[in-house]
Fold this sequence. Notes:
The chain is of the alpha/beta class and 278 residues long. It folds into two domains: 4-118 and 267-277, Quinolinate phosphoribosyl transferase, N-terminal domain (Aldehyde Oxidoreductase, domain 3, Alpha-Beta Complex); 119-265, Aldolase class I (TIM Barrel, Alpha-Beta Barrel). It is built from eleven helices and twelve strands. The protein has helices spanning 4-19, 24-29, 51-59, 90-120, 139-148, 166-172, 175-185, 199-208, 220-230, 247-251, 262-265; strands spanning 35-42, 46-47, 66-69, 76-77, 82-89, 127-129, 162-164, 192-196, 212-216, 235-239, 257-259, 272-277. It has a six-stranded parallel β-sheet with strand order 6-11-10-9-8-7. A four-stranded antiparallel β-sheet has the order 3-5-1-12, with helices on one face. Strands 2-4 form a two-stranded antiparallel ribbon. Helix 9 links the parallel strand 9 (212-216) and strand 10 (235-239). Helix 7 runs parallel beside helix 8 (199-208) and helix 8 runs parallel beside helix 9. The model has no long low-confidence stretch (mean pLDDT 97).
Amino acid sequence: MLTTYQVNDILKRSFREDIGSGDLTTTYCVPPGKGGSGRLIAKEAGVLAGIEIAIEAFAYLDRAVRGIKLFADGEKVSRGDVVMTVEGPLQPILSSERIALNLLQRLSGIATQTALWAEEIKDYPAKLADTRKTTPGLRILEKYAVQVGGGQNHRLALDGGIMIKDNHITAAGGIDQAVQAVRNRAPFTLKIEVEVTNLDQLNEALEAGVDIIMLDNMDTEKMRQAVEITAGRVLLEASGNITLSRLKEIAATGVDYISCGALTHSAKALDLSFQLEL
């Protein structure tokens, strides 16, 4: 899913933002050429995601810096585990430490939260998916972390599929009008998804012949009714006001997908620290 170009582009922007014209403290404190090593340690349990990106971050300023991973993406780490070691010239190591940690902590936090949620519905056919509620500029990494944690990706971007939401319906004059407008212009190979908030709209979407229907902010009883009405004719996606405590009851309604922005926008960073050793 991730390409070298995408990772390098994110690292380039991250270093430009963080270092500015130069890391003054490290330049003044650390003699050029002085070498050393360090350990990246987990301070709490979680699921690791982004270890290769952290290695690239540490080596971004100087390819003489060598990172060695001791855990792979998708593996569970415990408090006190050494996740990776880093060795080489200390100036670039210290200047890149914060970016490497920020990315690894953020992605591991998303993977950890996704794994927790996915475990909650493992006994149901429903699949857990993310949304576009991601950090601007980091979406490709955050959606990668969702995959590592056992979730699935929704659209990566607006060009990833047709999703007719409430404002599109309002602007077009109704569900049928919006669907027909899309059909008049979109390639026939694209699936059409429509967001509905009640059962009347559900029936309108079915009559319009859509492929996927998003049940937005419906209670579980309405979701059960929607599953009965559709009878497998289209895929159903539950979304809106999705919480961990509601996951099982939503999955039990029979919907096909449960999409949740909280996987990315509300995930707590996994606590990691970097300790230098001379």
